[in-house]
């Protein structure tokens, strides 16, 4: 029989998702890897113990369970190595701690996930790192913001809540010219629809809590680095001890098996609803990068292979003092959508978005912004639910 790895390397993405990570032959033919709960690993003798001369040495440094997931993620990301951390937020903060020191400067996109900004404005500030926020559409113009001590440029595309696109290759080229590391929160696209390392990013960040886990029951982060940045990332992980739990690693690998088909459904339903919403009374704008009306759509078309299932709508707001009442009326009328944070799970979720933290990328002001995570439910039922929300908002 031909080598399994060779066959899989040339296979389609769903085939690779079904088989990546572990070889059943390694575990007596069981299809899934074992869940290894471990702190202590025993050594056969003192010399091996002294030299750490065996594959596994301690639970924080990897197990057969985390190795299986690691191999799958490295293959998807095209990375030299991946660390696991206990949440998507830690997948941002750990690499920031890896590459930034007191006296350094970082550039962070203004449409960033809010807790990332909070980390920058509090802990990084306390540690002596300064941060400036830049316009997501800045492209190569980011060069004007680079300082002699700029060590890290953080990207996130599409942006949180308002979905602004970024010219990642242009930004990465400028950052590299000035010796800065480029990180990207790629949670929206997953490596199925965008592979950051192929576009010049050094470190790809993923809240695996979302699509990889896929069932709203696991918190998990992955950080994947290219060869030049792997050692520093790995050393930081070992130094901080921010390892992830074995049951969670197992659940994320389990989620990966179906992530391709789930994403296809999320994509299809979300696009159908986004297109419908563009023509609906009471909606002033739909913020979805795969819509040709969306600023930045050309960047999405150029670089991305697909779109996931989360986007926002801006309601016709009337007077600013009625925006909140309209948003609440919309949310309170929903029966299928849950009112909750996070996304990437099997179920619809809605949230009234606050953009009050923005400094340069202000976002829409004509009405309230509602973020919709489109789940795996039937589209006609989701549409009927949104219609209930819109009718209630119109009545305010
Ligand atoms: C873009 C983005 N990055 C990171 C995170 C953090 O993930 P977690 O909830 O696992 O901390 C989120 C969570 O909503 C997110 O939307």
From TrEMBL:
GO terms for biological process: L-cysteine catabolic process to pyruvate; transsulfuration. The keyword DNA damage does not apply. This is Cystathionine beta-lyase. Belongs to the trans-sulfuration enzymes family. Its cofactor is pyridoxal 5'-phosphate. InterPro entries: Cys/Met-Metab_PyrdxlP-dep_enz (IPR000277), Cys_b_lyase_bac (IPR006233), PyrdxlP-dep_Trfase (IPR015424), PyrdxlP-dep_Trfase_major (IPR015421), PyrdxlP-dep_Trfase_small (IPR015422). Pfam families: Cys_Met_Meta_PP. Keywords: Lyase, Pyridoxal phosphate. The keyword S-adenosyl-L-methionine does not apply. Its EC number is 4.4.1.8. It catalyses: L,L-cystathionine + H2O = L-homocysteine + pyruvate + NH4(+). It comes from Shinella zoogloeoides. It comes from the Bacteria. The modification N6-(pyridoxal phosphate)lysine is found at residue 210. GO terms for molecular function: cysteine-S-conjugate beta-lyase activity; pyridoxal phosphate binding.
């Amino acid at each position: 029989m031909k080598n399994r790895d060779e066959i899989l390397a040339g296979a389609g993405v769903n085939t690779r998702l079904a088989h990546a990570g572990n070889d059943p032959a390694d575990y007596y033919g069981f299809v899934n890897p074992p869940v290894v709960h471990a702190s202590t690993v025993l050594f056969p003798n003192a010399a091996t113990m002294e030299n750490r001369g065996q594959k596994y040495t301690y639970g924080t440094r990897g197990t057969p369970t985390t190795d299986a997931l690691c191999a799958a993620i490295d293959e998807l990301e095209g990375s030299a190595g991946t660390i696991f951390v206990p949440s998507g937020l830690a997948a941002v903060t750990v690499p920031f701690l890896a590459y930034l020191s007191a006296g350094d400067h970082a550039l962070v996109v203004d449409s960033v996930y809010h807790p990332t900004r909070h980390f920058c404005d509090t802990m990084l500030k306390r540690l002596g790192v300064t941060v400036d926020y830049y316009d997501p559409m800045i492209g190569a113009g980011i060069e004007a913001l680079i300082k002699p001590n700029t060590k890290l440029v953080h990207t996130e595309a599409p942006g949180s809540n308002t979905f602004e696109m970024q010219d990642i290759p242009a930004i990465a080229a400028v950052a590299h010219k000035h010796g800065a590391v480029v990180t990207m929160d790629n949670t929206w696209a997953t490596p199925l629809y965008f592979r950051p390392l192929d576009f010049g990013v050094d470190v790809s960040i993923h809240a695996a809590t979302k699509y990889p886990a896929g069932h709203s029951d696991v918190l998990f982060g992955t950080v994947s680095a290219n060869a030049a940045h792997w050692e520093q990332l790995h050393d930081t992980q070992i130094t901080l001890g921010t390892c992830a739990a074995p049951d969670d690693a197992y659940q994320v690998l389990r989620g990966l098996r179906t992530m391709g088909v789930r994403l296809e459904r999320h994509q299809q339903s979300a696009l159908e609803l986004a297109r419908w919403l563009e023509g609906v009374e009471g909606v002033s704008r739909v913020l979805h990068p795969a819509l040709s009306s969306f600023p930045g759509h050309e960047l999405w078309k150029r670089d991305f292979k697909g779109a996931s299932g989360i986007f926002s709508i801006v309601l016709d707001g009337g007077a600013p003092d009625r925006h909140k009442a309209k948003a609440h009326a919309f949310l309170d009328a929903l029966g299928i959508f849950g009112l909750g944070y996070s996304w990437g799970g099997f179920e619809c979720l809605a949230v009234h978005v606050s953009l009050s933290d923005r400094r340069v990328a202000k976002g829409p002001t004509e009405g309230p912004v509602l973020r919709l995570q489109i789940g795996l439910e039937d589209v006609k039922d989701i549409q009927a639910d949104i219609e209930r929300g819109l009718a209630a908002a119109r009545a305010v």
